[in-house]
Amino acid sequence: MSINLLHRHVLEDHISGFETDPNPNHLLVIRRPMIFTVLAHEGQGTAVAEALWNAPDVAPRFCGPSEWLAVSRTVGAETVAGMLSDIAGASVVDQSDGQVLMEISGPSVRKILGRCVAVDLHPEVFEEGRSATMLCCHVAANVARTGADTFEIVVPRSFAGSVFEELTDMGREHALTRGFAD
User: Fold this and answer.
1) Burial of residue 119, with CB atoms counted within 10 A of its CB: 0-12 exposed, 13-18 middle, 19 or more buried
2) What is the pTM (predicted TM-score) of this model?
3) Mean pLDDT estimate for the chain
4) SS3 of 94, please?
């Protein structure tokens, strides 16, 4: 008996058959991001934060005092785990299989997200590089501003379909398209 272990993304059924060329407002699902939780040991928060911000190929996302997500779209789990395990005073857990990473971008991104989060996303308040854990579409998520009109959203895998559908609904009037990253 042969078992097919081909990776199937949790949002495959939400997107397949609906993919189109991206409009200026677009919701992109990243297929295999590396997402690690990093917790600083007592008294090590500043040192761990500095090490995370200096780690190559890793984007740190603030979650709370002494807690971050380390997100990578470019290197594999072993590479990220190796880099993070070298950070003194930190505990690291791979969350990649339990989290989904989406990127929403475009000129109407703040209007779309503004209907889903209760946070001021004005560029002067929520600056590029800033991230926070918040409710997004009624689900605990980490939202990060990664560009002028670009945000990344990390949500638990079990709630990804719900968040994806709600973001799609909120973006309908702005011609939001969706698809998988290549």
Assistant:
1) middle
2) 0.90
3) 91
4) strand
